[in-house]
């Protein structure tokens, strides 16, 4: 069992009252570790440390910062197996998925080690021969990251890596369900030589108190958050009081459009890859499938056959492909969505029940589910289910499918499958989403911009775009006139 304190100014320390909270495995409800339970005072101490560390870190040569980020990448790969196992125990995802996440998370350090060297300014032509105009890019300052439980490594590194590359310092507040992976990351960054105070970790069960301390502190110049739209709106309102920069990666409600010319087996594989990763607990996973009426029944049969082969269980077991939901609250929401769909006329093709008995007792397991003939009135088409439920809705015309896909306040990710190039271009341009996968159910990668439109967020993470979120633009005008 792991027990971690807070990581502040390069030192592990207990919360001031000595309080800890338990971290449990959602597959069996057994305790896997404990974390220090912090409040506002410890959060301010973390901001103090980040504020003190900022001048030295921001003034380091970009190459120096790059070398350190490269070392973080190397250390993460060296300890990939340990981190993956810890992640599976506290979050529940299958070990193979956890290993994939560690690689994905490490890739952000690799990418931003290079981007650190490419923070360029400009020389702007002046309107006067005795003036020079320079444009400089400088780090924002102290930043704070609030991260979710579904990707406990990648959602941190996707924020920390560009922040450090730009010369910012950071305070990280991970989700209380999965703080052990965050602590493991702090150990790795310490081993890699990230200076004291550059990254700090504050954990606790009172997210509102910690968040308030970060939002009220004028020294924190940027908040970056991944989580629910509801909380994102609250942060956005409160960030206005000190005019902080804010990046938000919020809820998704991703549609997947399958057109009549699709290779049904390949389209099914892409839908499955998108939908059932992490038991459907990803913000970009397919939440609604719109399939052409001509192929709807055949596609449902293929999906059902594939879904019934999926192995559900504790993530460290061999052959397991679907782990548990994160907690009982998440499981109850899935049950409510399926019950609502059935009451309103949807057909359960496969699944549709909680899994209990034998090794599943004590865990939050739900059978991978396919629903046929869902409608817009059903919760599965109105809300993000965040579970292993795949609703199928028929359509006839391309315009109808696009209209249905866009009929939501969310706009994070969308997918389509077609072999018609003209249609792929038309539809991908018409979809009101920040990310579109064309014949690709898993488009996320470190070098591409990740983020949404509408109520799915502000800003982008990943690629050259991600570092822009941590840079200010300064205009310098120099007069060459002599006395």
UniProtKB/TrEMBL annotation:
<dbReference type="InterPro" id="IPR016161">
    <property type="entry name" value="Ald_DH/histidinol_DH"/>
</dbReference>
<dbReference type="InterPro" id="IPR050740">
    <property type="entry name" value="Aldehyde_DH_Superfamily"/>
</dbReference>
<dbReference type="InterPro" id="IPR016162">
    <property type="entry name" value="Ald_DH_N"/>
</dbReference>
<protein>
    <submittedName>
        <fullName>Succinate semialdehyde dehydrogenase</fullName>
    </submittedName>
</protein>
<dbReference type="GO" id="GO:0004777">
    <property type="term" value="F:succinate-semialdehyde dehydrogenase (NAD+) activity"/>
</dbReference>
<keyword id="KW-0560">Oxidoreductase</keyword>
<dbReference type="InterPro" id="IPR015590">
    <property type="entry name" value="Aldehyde_DH_dom"/>
</dbReference>
<comment type="similarity">
    <text>Belongs to the aldehyde dehydrogenase family.</text>
</comment>
<feature type="domain" description="Aldehyde dehydrogenase">
    <location>
        <begin position="12"/>
        <end position="476"/>
    </location>
</feature>
<dbReference type="InterPro" id="IPR016160">
    <property type="entry name" value="Ald_DH_CS_CYS"/>
</dbReference>
<dbReference type="InterPro" id="IPR016163">
    <property type="entry name" value="Ald_DH_C"/>
</dbReference>
<dbReference type="Pfam" id="PF00171">
    <property type="entry name" value="Aldedh"/>
</dbReference>
<dbReference type="GO" id="GO:0009450">
    <property type="term" value="P:gamma-aminobutyric acid catabolic process"/>
</dbReference>
<dbReference type="InterPro" id="IPR010102">
    <property type="entry name" value="Succ_semiAld_DH"/>
</dbReference>
